[in-house]
Amino acid sequence: MNATQAKTQANKPKTLASRRHRTERGVSIWSYKTSAGARWAFELRLLEKGEIRKVQRRGFLNKPAAMEAATHLEFEGQSTPAASFTFEQLLLDYVSQLSGTICETSRANYYHLVSLYCRDSLFTRKVASLGIADFQRLLYGLANAPKNLRPGTINTLRSRLIALFNYGLQIGACQINPVKLVKPAKAFSQSSSTVSEPWSVSEANLARKVFEGTRLEIFLDFALYLGLRKGEILALTWADLDLELGLVRITKSYSQRRTLLEGKIVTSESNGETKTASSIRSLPIPGPLLKKLRGKFTTERPNAVSPVVALNGRHWSISNLAKEYRRICNDGNLRLIRIHDIRHTSAVLSLLGNAPLEAVSQALGHTGVEVTKRYYAKRVSTFPQLFISGVEKALSDSP
């Protein structure tokens, strides 16, 4: 390369993906382009037993987050050899390096799920000593425990553990990923579905009678008549209801949020965004529910912000709501299904009443009709008959 070529090369603008920043302590940090915008990555070079071990991490939202993660990883590499990590140390190290790459709630949920089911049996064990049998015993045991965890929950835990041990492989804490060799839950779980069977028409009518006069009567009506999610109902205020026009506006959702602070989970409950943008919607309030709300507005409006309140007039906590729901179902000899499955009941009943899939999808706040079809079409046995009737009608009407 001559002097002119060298000068031209030096003056070329570097792309975001190739721009690299080197530090003095064996760390390279650079930015790159993604469809979601700029992200940052680093490569850390650690000296172990006279050899250089390279560790890369990607997906950080900004350079300071990447620098902080690199510093933490370098410190851990110098203070505690990864090969001697306990399961708890590996978990804490992993969720620490996730900071800045995913939202804090997701990071805390990850730690909460793994620690909830692994604390008693695995936390003090050396990572290098854990094998396939340990995780078969853990996951098979959870699938067949008295609480009968659903396959979806067990498979989520399995995927989190696989990611954890992939990280362990990268830093030299283990030689294999034993969790990958354990079959997914559907292969060994006694439970066949992640969704409870919705209430039948008779069970739904029984539920209306059982919940009548209880503090959850209005809650049940919102879930059953309108198919609202639990968080959407709990976030409702009187300001979201137009009792004159008979409309309800869903704009937010009440949920439980976790944050991880110094290895401890801190839980809070508050209003936040809806599940998706499609979940923001307005729905007509059915006549029976509208009548109850108008009467409730007259008697309780000055003392309550929400039409769905606990006995003390305060906001329901998610745990207390679940306890009260189970109590009412048990006392009324009503088959217990998950609160979210009342929403599924609403969808299936609507489809059985010949409501179009598009109408059900929009009312439920789904992102598209394919979501509704995937979950509910197989549960409606009348669809084939409707198809045949439509063909017969078209042919009989033709000249």
What can you see in these coordinates?
This protein has helices at residues 3-11, 63-79, 87-97, 104-122, 132-143, 151-171, 201-211, 217-226, 230-234, 287-300, 318-331, 340-352, 357-364, 369-376, 383-397; strands at 20-22, 27-34, 37-48, 51-60, 241-242, 247-250, 253-261, 264-272, 281-284. Strand 2 (27-34) and strand 3 (37-48) form a beta hairpin. The protein folds into 3 domains: 15-61, no CATH class; 80-194, DNA polymerase, domain 1 (Orthogonal Bundle); 201-385, hpI Integrase, Chain A (Orthogonal Bundle). It is elongated and about 80 Å long. It has 399 residues and is α+β, with helices and mostly antiparallel strands. Helix 3 runs antiparallel to helix 4, helix 7 runs antiparallel to helix 8 (217-226) and helix 8 (217-226) packs across helix 12 (340-352).
